[in-house]
Amino acid sequence: MNAVVALIAAVAVLLVPVPTARHRLRLPRPRAPARSRPQRPRRADPLVLAAGWDLLAAGMRAGLPVPVIVRAVAVEVGGTARRTLDEVADHLALGCDAATGWEPALRDPDTAELARAARRTARTGSALADVAAELADRARSRGSDLAEARAQRGAVWISAPLGLCFLPAFLCLGVLPVVLGLLAQLPIAPL
């Protein structure tokens, strides 16, 4: 009789879960996506910009029309600078003066320096090719500085875990035996 009652109780427990267990078995509701901060557009790779400015300088020295060169540079650099330079090429192809034509490039941090130089060379009559070559050299230097900074940060991130692992081993295997050996040689009088 007791065995039958125990069997019925076991079946009842298995078939009728308690409210807390039922709550645990319930699948979680999907959460609303978290609001992300609006991210500012990433700047173009300095080495890609340097290649674009070199292409601009070579095209200017070869005597190609500026809108054609700017379009070729836009394809080379890509990203937000591409849209900006395409817009500049459209303005220049329509016959806008340099101040108006290079205006959209002033708003993009990747092309602002080139736009200022292009507007200045249009006013003064100096060669834009030399300025573009100088901008390419500066962009390469900036790329080199960024790569060096990344390498230094990587060295810190690599050495930190090693330091955390070796410090306890150094204390246990290097310092502690010396301290215990010195303590064993000290004449300590019993109190």
UniProtKB/TrEMBL annotation:
Pfam families on file: T2SSF (PF00482)
Type II secretion system protein GspF domain mapped to chain residues: 55-173
Keyword Phosphoprotein: no
Membrane topology recorded in Swiss-Prot or TrEMBL: Multi-pass membrane protein
Record-annotated membrane-spanning stretches: 156-183
Compartments (UniProt record): Cell membrane
Name of protein: Type II secretion system (T2SS), protein F
Gene Ontology cellular-component terms listed: plasma membrane
UniProt KW Transmembrane helix keyword: yes
Domain of life: Bacteria
